[in-house]
Design brief:
- By secondary structure, the protein is mainly alpha-helical.
- The protein contains 4 helices and 2 strands, in the order ααααββ.
- It has helices at about 5-25, 35-45, 45-55, 65-80; strands spanning about 80-85, 95-100.
- Strands 1-2 form a two-stranded antiparallel sheet.
- The longest helix is centred in the first third of the chain and has 22 residues, at about 5-25.
Length: about 100
């Protein structure tokens, strides 16, 4: 798998941290579908950034590195463990995701 450029890693982490914090604030907790909700937020409000993250300099797609990185970030930020995988997402950016919980 191609590596994600360092400048993108920082931007992805910053955006995902903000989205996760907003989700927790609006729900009072982390819902089990927090990963799907993060991708839905990216889909609705950060597509320009997402497109740049998943496009390699040669034009090839890097979503197979970026998407798992985003999912693992959400898991680390929330401190939750995987409950079930794969779950059918609402986001069109991913084919499946892990539900998270305690």
């Amino acid at each position: 798998m191609p590596a994600i450029p360092k400048d993108y890693l920082k931007q992805i982490k910053s955006i995902v941290e903000d989205i996760v914090a907003d989700i927790e604030r609006s729900n009072g907790h982390y819902p089990t579908d927090v990963i799907d909700r993060v991708f839905l937020e990216i889909e609705n409000n950060y597509m320009q950034e997402y497109d740049s993250w998943i496009t390699l300099p040669n034009g090839a797609s890097n979503e197979h590195s970026v998407n798992p990185y985003i999912g693992s970030l959400v898991s680390r930020i929330t401190g939750l463990k995987v409950l079930a995988y794969p779950v059918k997402p609402n986001s069109r950016l991913i084919k499946g995701y892990s539900t998270l919980g305690y």
